[in-house]
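tl;dr need the bound structure. longer version: we got a ligand (adenosine-5'-triphosphate) that a collaborator sent over and nobodys looked at where it sits. i said id run it. heres the input, straight from their email, havent touched it
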Amino acid sequence: AELSNAQPSEIVLRLAGVQKYFGSVAAVENVELAVQKNQLVTLLGPSGCGKTTTLRMIAGFEFPTAGQIVIDGKDVTYTPPNKREIGIVFQSYSLFPHLRVSDNVAYGLKRRGVPKEERVQRVREALQLVDLGQFGDRLPNELSGGQQQRVALARAIVIRPKILLLDEPLSALDAKLRQRMRLEIRHLQRQIGMTTVLVTHDQEEALSMSDHIVVMNKGNVEQEGTPSSIYRQPKTSFVASFIGETNLFKGEIVHAANVDGLLVFRADCGFEACIRKADNLEPGRQLLLSLRPETLTISPSQGEAEASPNALRGTVAGINYLGARTVFEIKTPTRDLMVSVQNDAGSEAPVAFVEGQTIRLSWTPDACQIVEIN
Ligand code: ATP
C-alpha cells in the first residue's frame, strides 16, 4: 500500500533546539526537526555540516549539549541507544563476518529475547522483503556489496523499529548499484511504512528518495521542504548552489517592467532580466538571481545587440557531451556561465555549436529564481 501524505500528520520524531558541542567546536548549533510517521526525511549537507552528529544524537550515541529529542511523545534525550527502538544502517554495513546472514538478521531479536520460533519466522520475512530469501545460510563475505547492504537493511527493520536511521547507506556502492538501491530502499520504506531519517551529502540521492529534505549548513538548518520546493525555490545562495547546478547573479531591482506583473532586475555585470513580481520585491531591493543551466536557451547570435532583457551574448568556451545532455561553458564579457541542453535522441551530433562560436543566451521570467533577498 502506498503511504498517504494526506493524513493529519503524526509526529514520530521531534528535535527541539538541539545543540552539540565537542569542546569549543559547535558540531550542531541549533536544529529543529519534526518527522512525520511513515515519511522519509533526509538530512543533506556538505562534509562537516553536522548531519552525522545529528543522526548520532537521534540514535543515542551522542547526547546533546542542549535541547530535546522526543520519539513518539517520549523524551529520549538522554536515553541509551538500546532503549530507543531504533534501527540503523551504516555506510560500512557493520555485519558480523562470522555469522551467517540469517543469524546476522536474527541478532537484534535474540537480544530482545524473542522466542526461537517467532525469530525464525521474522527473519525469513525480513530476508524476503529485501529479496534475499535464498541467502540465509551464506556468510557476509559470500555476498556482493549490494546484497550485504540489503542484509544490513533486513537486520535493521526486523526489530520493527519506530524509526529507521540510514547513515550514508549507499556511498560504498558503485554508481549503477547505488541508483538501483535508492529505488529499492524507497520502495521498501513505502511498502512497510517505515519512518526513516537518511543522512547523505549526495544531493541526487536526497532529491530522489525523500519526502522532505532538511538542508544543513554549519550546524544549522538552512532550508527544508519537499525535494521540488528545495530545487525550485532555494532561499539562500548556499542552497541554490549546493542542490543542483546554478548560475548566480548579484544585482538589484531597478523598476517595474512595461509588461504587467514583471519587474526589471539589473545584474551587477550589466544585463537586465524581467522577473515575476512578488510582495517583498520593489525597486532598490538587492538580491541574487539564480538561473539553472537547463533553463537557459542557447541559439546562434544574429549579431544584433543582445541588450534586450532576458538575453546575453557570449562565446562557447567548452562543450561537455554527456549522452542525454550537453553542458556548455559560455564565456561572457564579465563571467562564465553553464548551460545544459537536452540532446535529441535522433540526431547524431549533440547540438550544433562549436567552440569559439558567438551565441545568444535567453530565458523566460519563470526561469528566474530569486534568492537571498536582503
Ligand atoms: P561528514 O559527512 O564528513 O561526516 P557531517 O556533516 O556528518 O560530515 P559531523 O560528522 O556531524 O558532520 O561533524 C560536524 C563537526 O563536528 C565537524 O566539524 C567535525 O569535525 C566535528 N566533530 C564531529 N564529531 C566530533 C568529535 N567526536 N569530536 C570533536 N569534533 C567532532
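gonna send this back to them w/ a short note. The chain has a mean pLDDT of 90.
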